[in-house]
Automatic annotation (TrEMBL):
Reactions this protein catalyses: (2R)-3-phosphoglycerate + NAD(+) = 3-phosphooxypyruvate + NADH + H(+); (R)-2-hydroxyglutarate + NAD(+) = 2-oxoglutarate + NADH + H(+)
CDD domains: ACT_3PGDH, PGDH_3
Organism: Microlunatus antarcticus
Keyword NAD: yes
Residue ranges annotated for the ACT domain, each copy included: 329-400
Pathway field: Amino-acid biosynthesis; L-serine biosynthesis; L-serine from 3-phospho-D-glycerate: step 1/3
Xref: Pfam families: 2-Hacid_dh, 2-Hacid_dh_C, ACT_AHAS_ss
GO BP annotations listed: L-serine biosynthetic process
Listed name of the protein: D-3-phosphoglycerate dehydrogenase
EC number: 1.1.1.399, 1.1.1.95
Length: 400
C-alpha cells in the first residue's frame, strides 16, 4: 500500500504510516490539479493540508485511492460528495490545533492593543518612542467572536480568563461557555465588540461574509482579526477601514490566494499599513499542534486502510469495528436503499459463508457494512458482491 503526503506533513504521521507497512512518498509543497492527478496512479492514501485541492478530476485519476487525510481542520479543499460517491473516506483533525490558533489570536489582540508592531518597527529604525498613547490593556475590553466552533469556543474561555468580556454569534445553536453572551445577529455583535475575531468555516456561503458594510458597523477604533479562511473577508474594504482610522488595527493569517511553498513571493493590499499583523497561515503551525495532527490523521488513515474503521470520517458512515485475528473482513460501501444488507447476506449465505460479526451504519445516501467471516473470501464471492447494483466500493481484508 502506498501513501502520498503533500505540504510537509509532520514526521510523526509519516512514522505511524510506515509502521503499518505503508510505503510513504512525501512532497514538500502543494501540487496543482494537473500535477496531483498525474501522480495518483497506484496511490491508496493521500495526505494534504489546506493548499491542495482534491477535485473531481483528481479523484477520477485515482482509481486505487481509499482515503484522503486532511492534516488540518478544514475539508473544503476536498470534493467530499464525489469522494463519497467513489467510496473514498475523508478524515481531518478538527481539534488538534485549536489551542495553537487560540494562543496566536490572543497574542495578536494584545500586540494590536499595545501597538507593539509599531513600537518594534520604530526601535529597529532607531527611534525611542516611550509613550502610553493609544496603548490599552485587554482586561475589561469586549471581544466579539464570529463562529463558535472548536476554536471560537476555546478562544471564548481563554479570553474570559484574561478578563475580557465575550460576545459570540453563530448561525448554529451553540451552548455559551462561561459568561459568554450569545448575539442573535452579527449586527448585534458588531455594535458591542471592541475587537472582532472571525472563526467560521470555508463553505462557499461564507465567501465575502465580512465586507464594507460590516466594517462600517464596527465600533470606531476597533480591532479586527481573521484566522479562519481568506475568502470570508474583503481585503480592499478592510484596507479602506484601516486607512480611514475606523479600524485601529488588524491581524490576518489567511488569504484568498496563498503561495504554494515557503519562499514563494507574497503580495497583499494590506502590506505596509501601520498596526497590521500579517502572518503566513501559521495559526496551527506549532510543533505541538503539527505533531498531534500528524498522529491523529495518520492513525485514522491507518485504521481505515488496515481494518476498515471509519471513525470520525467526514463523508462516509462511521463504523467502529475491532480487528480479530484469523478472520476475513468484507468492507462494503453501498447505496443506502432498502434491502441491501439482506442481499449481501444472501450472497454470503448461498456461498456457505458463516458471518462471525457484522456492523452497519448509514449516512445520507450511503451505507457501510463491515462483515467478518472465518477463512478466506473466495474471489468469485467478492466479485458477486461487487456486481450488486447498490455497491459503491468493496474491499476484502485478511486479518492476520
Amino acid at each position: 500500500m502506498k501513501a502520498l503526503l503533500l505540504e510537509n506533513i509532520h514526521p510523526e504521521g509519516i512514522r505511524l504510516l510506515t509502521e503499518r507497512g505503508i510505503e510513504v512518498e512525501t512532497v514538500k509543497g502543494a501540487l496543482d490539479e494537473d500535477e496531483l492527478a498525474s501522480r495518483m496512479s497506484g496511490v491508496q492514501l493521500l495526505g494534504i493540508r489546506s493548499k491542495t485541492q482534491v477535485t473531481d478530476r483528481v479523484l477520477e485519476a485515482a482509481p486505487d485511492l481509499l482515503a484522503v487525510g486532511a492534516f488540518c481542520i478544514g475539508t473544503n479543499q476536498i470534493d467530499l460528495a464525489v469522494a463519497a460517491e467513489r467510496g473514498v473516506a475523508v478524515f481531518n483533525a478538527p481539534f488538534s490545533n485549536t489551542r495553537s490558533v487560540v494562543e496566536l489570536v490572543l497574542a495578536e489582540i494584545i500586540s494590536l492593543a499595545r501597538h507593539l508592531t509599531d513600537k518594534n518597527a520604530a526601535m529597529h529604525a532607531g527611534v525611542w518612542d516611550k509613550s502610553a498613547k493609544g496603548a490599552h490593556e485587554v482586561r475589561g475590553r469586549t471581544l466579539g467572536i464570529v463562529g463558535y466552533g472548536n476554536i471560537g469556543s476555546q478562544l471564548s474561555v481563554v479570553a474570559e480568563a484574561l478578563g475580557m468580556k465575550v460576545y459570540f454569534y453563530d448561525v448554529a445553536d451553540k451552548l455559551a461557555l462561561g459568561n459568554a453572551q450569545r448575539c442573535d445577529s452579527m449586527d448585534e455583535l458588531l455594535a458591542v465588540a471592541e475587537t472582532v475575531s472571525l472563526h467560521v468555516d470555508g463553505r462557499a456561503g461564507n465567501a465575502g461574509l465580512f465586507g464594507a458594510e460590516q466594517f462600517a458597523k464596527m465600533r470606531p477604533r476597533s480591532l479586527f482579526l481573521n484566522l479562519c479562511r481568506g475568502i470570508v473577508v474583503d481585503h480592499e474594504a478592510l484596507r479602506e477601514a484601516l486607512l480611514s482610522g475606523h479600524v485601529a488595527g488588524a491581524a490576518l493569517d489567511v488569504f484568498e490566494t496563498e503561495p504554494k511553498t515557503t519562499g514563494d513571493p507574497f503580495v497583499s493590499t494590506l502590506q505596509n499599513i501601520p498596526n497590521v499583523i500579517l502572518t503566513p497561515h501559521v495559526g496551527g503551525s506549532t510543533e505541538e499542534a503539527q505533531s498531534d495532527i500528524g498522529r491523529f490523521v495518520a492513525l485514522k488513515l491507518g485504521d481505515y486502510a488496515t481494518g476498515g474503521a471509519t471513525t470520525m470520517s467526514v463523508n462516509l458512515p462511521q463504523v467502529i469495528a475491532a480487528v480479530e485475528p484469523g478472520r476475513s473482513r468484507i468492507l462494503h460501501v453501498h447505496r443506502n436503499v432498502p434491502g441491501v444488507l439482506a442481499r449481501v447476506n444472501t450472497v454470503l449465505g448461498d456461498a456457505g459463508v458463516n458471518i462471525e460479526g457484522q456492523t452497519l451504519s448509514t449516512r445520507g445516501e450511503l451505507g457501510y457494512v463491515i462483515t467478518d467471516t472465518v477463512g478466506p473470501v473466495r474471489a468469485d464471492l467478492a466479485e458477486r458482491l461487487r456486481e450488486l447494483p447498490e455497491t459503491v466500493r468493496l474491499r476484502v481484508l485478511s486479518c492476520d
